Amino acid sequence: MPTLVQRLQKFLASPQGQKVVAEGRRQLAKPENQAKLKQLATRFQSRRPR
């Protein structure tokens, strides 16, 4: 039985997986989405105990 990582790699190599990756890259290129990700990262970093 393939591991989760192997299944994910197989999906990403498929045409459907390539479409998902391309759409993700298009979305990440938008400044408003970059700002949302930055806010999310800041929120997680501030919660992390040191």
Task: Describe the protein in words.
By secondary structure, the chain is mainly α. 82% of the residues lie in helices and 0% in strands. The chain contains 3 helices and no strands. The protein has helices at 4-13, 15-28, 31-47. The chain is flat and about 40 Å long. The model has no long low-confidence stretch (mean pLDDT 93).
Provide a concise account of the structure shown:
The chain is mainly α and 50 residues long. The protein is built from three helices and no strands.
Topology:
Blueprint: H1 4-13, H2 15-28, H3 31-47
Distance from N terminus to C terminus (CA atoms, Å) equals 39 Å
What's the average pLDDT?
Answer: 93
User: Per the principal axes of the C-alpha atoms, what is the gross shape?
Assistant: flat
Q: How can the largest sheet be summarized?
A: none
Q: Total strand count, please?
A: 0
How large is the count of helical segments? Answer: 3
Oligomeric state as shown: single chain
Order of helices and strands: HHH
Radius of gyration, CA atoms, in whole angstroms: 16 Å
Percent range for helical residues? over 70%
Strand percentage, roughly?
under 5%
Uncertain spans: none
**Structure classification:** mainly alpha
